[in-house]
Amino acid sequence: MEGKLFIERARSVRRYFKYLREYKLHCILGPIAKWIEAVLELLVPLVMASIIDVGVAGGDVSYVLWGGAVMLAMGIVGFFCAIFCQRSASITSQGFGTNVRNALFSHINTLSGRELDKIGAASLLTRTVNDVNQMQNAVAMIIRLVVRAPFIALGSVILCMVIDWQIGLVVLAVAALVGAVLWIIMKKSVPYYTANQKKLDRLTQITNENLEGARVVRAFCSRDRERARFDAAAEDMLQNSLHIGRISAWLNPLTYAIVNFGVALILLWSGFKVDAGALSSGEIVALINYMVQILNAMIVISNLVSLFTKAHASMGRVSEVFDLAPSVTDGAGAQPDFSAPAVAFEGVSFSYAGTDRYSLREVDAVIPRSATVGVIGGTGSGKSTFANLIPRLYDATVGRVRVFGRDVRDYTLNGLRGVIGVVPQNAELFSGTIRSNLEWGAPHATDEELYAALAAACADRFVREKGGLDTPVIEGGKNFSGGQRQRLTIARALAAKPEILILDDSCSALDFATDAALRANLAALEGVTTVLISQRASSIRNADAIFVLEDGRIAGKGTHGQLYETCGLYREICDSQTRAEE
């Protein structure tokens, strides 16, 4: 079992080597420079022992000066080697972090809604930023210290055995004990580090919810409640961090105690050997220096253990995302048959990840080309799910969805979504300008074409008043009202000149006059199949056909007049909204 786990971890580490490929030279030369510095550091006690035993004991000043000059030269060379290694480590780690982050972001964008729902936005954000940072720090430490610290420790033990093999065995035993302590502490702390990252996900999620919904929190005077929720998550993370602290707190005291006990034992034993003439004063100084070097190396190794434990936990979380295969992938590249119906649902049922409950059940629906179709129903009836299956944001669990006669699974994603314009329920704008937002679907559109899309979306007037296409858009489009954001997202979809236009309850913030004007403009579009999803009966009453959804099933289909006479649910919706308007 342990062997299998080790192999899996080795494979997990190996997958990240490709992100270091362009920094191969830095990965080789950096550790070599650090190794040279370590060799010189190991030679210093030998030079010092020679100065004491030959120069000082014999009163040879020139020998002392020569030895001092050698040590100075070794220090200068070591200094420049350390600088070169530090530079290599910085370049490599930053480049590695950038490459992993880019690859992770690119992979996340290939995932369908099913995979994104499974992990959650807050966790993906933490993994992309915090977890990759931990891995990036580990790469820097590998280049800077992983070669140096073990080499210093092992080299010091070997040189101690060369000077005196009996004392060398004591040094070896001390090093082995410290290594055992490091291993036990690492073994016990790994699960807590993994848990800590998950708790950080939760903290990020709560923070994000409160920042995004700050107005709602204040409107409901819920600051105390939300602060308590944040404090509870922070306290949970604190308790887990304290567990890590309690385990890690044993590291330095145990390391120092073992090494210092070893130093005391060496001094005691060396005293007897000096008396017997088996050791010189310079050799004792060299042995103590090597023991101090081992202590320093072990302290570095203990810090590396803590760092690599965090990095290992983070690497596992990042690997989880990389291991997620997108459930929605490119098809064979089918071409649309524009003589066929624009959209056809054939026995479609769908359930979201993590639940067996179907959000859509056995749906059969045909939407002719160039028709305007309305979809209405209560909250949770499956309207947005219906819309999401057409551009293949999700794949149907059962049945199939056809677009222009072809199964959506047979299209490439770019090919399918290139003929569909989607206006989501939440009006999402991105920081930049109005122009940069409109150009998402039409990167080469002229100003005239963009203004034509704005005019069709009833947005050209306020855009001109605000300063035109180059008007700044702040994060989330917060410098526009809800209705303005909705009209800009509609214009963004229209700018791409789609064959199928899906409006998922995207007119909810518009007043009735603007809503009516917008519907008239959409009806005037030639050759465009429009799917209007709305909770307002007035918004879809003039549609060529209306589908009424109830609990994921189609409860009725037909025109407004037909449904009002034959579908009790539709009549109830219409009557309740008429009374509310009155």
What does this structure look like?
The protein is an alpha/beta fold and 582 residues long. The chain has three domains: 2-191 and 240-323, Up-down Bundle (ABC transporter transmembrane region fold), CATH 1.20.1560.10; 330-419 and 498-582, P-loop containing nucleotide triphosphate hydrolases (Rossmann fold, 3-Layer(aba) Sandwich); 429-497, Rossmann fold. 65% of the residues lie in helices and 10% in strands. The chain has helices at residues 2-14, 24-58, 61-108, 113-119, 121-146, 148-163, 165-212, 214-219, 223-248, 251-276, 281-323, 383-389, 413-417, 434-438, 447-456, 460-466, 482-495, 512-523, 537-540, 560-566, 568-581; strands spanning 343-350, 360-367, 372-377, 398-403, 406-407, 420-423, 432-433, 472-473, 500-504, 529-533, 545-550, 553-558. The strands form three sheets. It has a six-stranded mixed beta sheet with strand order 6-9-10-3-11-12, sandwiched between helices. A hairpin with a 2-residue loop joins β4 (398-403) and β5 (406-407). α2 runs antiparallel to α3 (61-108) and α5 (121-146) runs antiparallel to α7 (165-212). The protein is elongated and about 115 Å long. The mean pLDDT is 84.
